[in-house]
Amino acid sequence: MKQVHIFDTTLRDGEQSPGVRLNMEQKLEIGHALVDLGVNIVEAGFPISSPGDFESVHTLATELKGVTICGLTRAITKDIECAAEALKPAERPRIHTGLGVSENHLQHKLKMTEDQALEKGVAAVKLARQFVDDVEYFMEDSGRAKREYLYRVVEAVINAGATVINVPDTTGYTTPDEYHDLFHDLINNVPNSDKAIFSCHCHNDLGMATANTLGGVMGGARQVEVTVNGIGERAGNTSLEEVVMALHIRNDKFNLETSIQTQQLLSVSKLVSRHTGMLVQRNKAVVGANAYAHSSGIHQDGVLKERSTYEIIDPLLVGAEKSEIILTARSGRHGLKHRLSELGFSFPAERFEEVYTYFLEVADTKSEVGDEDLYELVKR
Ligand code: KIV
Ligand code: ZN
Q1: In ligand 1, which atom is closest to the CA atom of 141?
Q2: Which residues of the chain are in CATH 3.20.20.70 domains?
Q3: Which of 101, 166, 212, 227 to mutate to test the pocket of ligand 1 (most atoms within 8 A of CB)?
Q4: Complete DSSP assignment for 302-340
């Protein structure tokens, strides 16, 4: 089975989330957790952006073993030299450089023609290759760029020595079928495309980051750029746990594997949430507090008979303890009987009906009926 490389950018694009600031100790703890989780590449930061970020990339490059450490740069000499210096201690250093490719970015941000930008990108890759063997080239705003120009850029930067081609949907604009076709077309129309790995990098402005990334993988991408809990600029980046579990659970469709130890997904999610202060929404896919909780009577009845009736992910697979039965006014007799028996209570049918009536009275007054409530109502 073929592998999809997991490129984690929690410490770079994730840390760009408004309001997030990680100190060195927190970055190191997250970095070690990412290595244990099994990611292939850690994007440690943007070394030229501040002395603090330089220090972080240098420290992570020194401390983290068995993983590629990547530093972001603009296509500017001083950025590349700075990243090369920060990455010096890394076992496997990668410089991630590039610039915009859409008409919008060329005209409004870069104020360059296509040819000028292309020349600058090629020069940046050549310079980066003087320091490291592994150079990733990002084509910012690929999602809104012209195909013909992308073909020219990809061919030129691969010829200049780029080993990975990042095709970011920087603004979260594309749809999954468009992003799929983008990879398919690049891989099939650029003559030297077999000399590089193609990478997905999606933002979640329209809530399509995970779907787009999976679309890109179906189109031939073999690296995905993701963050834990999907944190990142604006509406965030593609969530690591969602892509990994989609590839795992729907292996019948993708036939691709990752090196991720899925049992650690929940603990890494909690660690990142704690250090960044970014709470995980309760109904978040894979790692949300409600992801394996069942509250309605119909679902509880099904899950108690056979978990797979309503759960496609075994909670143990992501490191959650087990499915949870939450007692609410929508719960039924089966759910109540189950929880009472876990607490050591068993009642004859008539008495149980009485307890069930009391339960509904309490349930109508609050969002969740807890064990303390059950202890009280069985005394009535
Ligand atoms: O979203 C983006 O285009 C980026 C690049 C800098 C890789 O984060
Ligand atoms: Zn990004």
Answers
A1: 3
A2: 5-276
A3: 166
A4: HHHH-GGGT-SS-GGGGT----EE---TT--HHHHHHHH
pLDDT tens digit sequence for 273-332: 999 999 999 999 999 999 999 989 999 999 999 889 999 999 999 999 888 899 999 999
The listed CATH number (3.20.20.70, 3.60.15.10, 3.40.50.2000, 3.40.50.720) that belongs to domain 5-276: 3.20.20.70
Residue 257 backbone class (left: φ over 0; alpha: ψ -120 to 50; beta: rest): beta
Q: Which two tokens stand for residue 193?
A: 């495309």
Distance set, CA 8 to CA 13, 154, 229, 322 (Å): 9, 23, 11, 27
Q: With 0.85 as the threshold, say if the pTM is over it.
A: yes
Query: Exposure pattern of 117-127 as b/e (b: 16+ CB <10 Å)?
Result: bbebbbebbbb
Which atom of ligand 1 is nearest the CA belonging to 13?
Answer: 8
Quickly count helices (H) and strands (E) in the chain. 15, 12
Ligand 1 surroundings by CB, under 6 angstroms: 13, 138, 140, 166, 168, 170, 201, 203
How far apart are alpha carbons 291 and 286 in whole angstroms? 6
Beta bridge partners of 361: none
**Alpha-carbon span 256 to 267, nearest angstrom:** 24
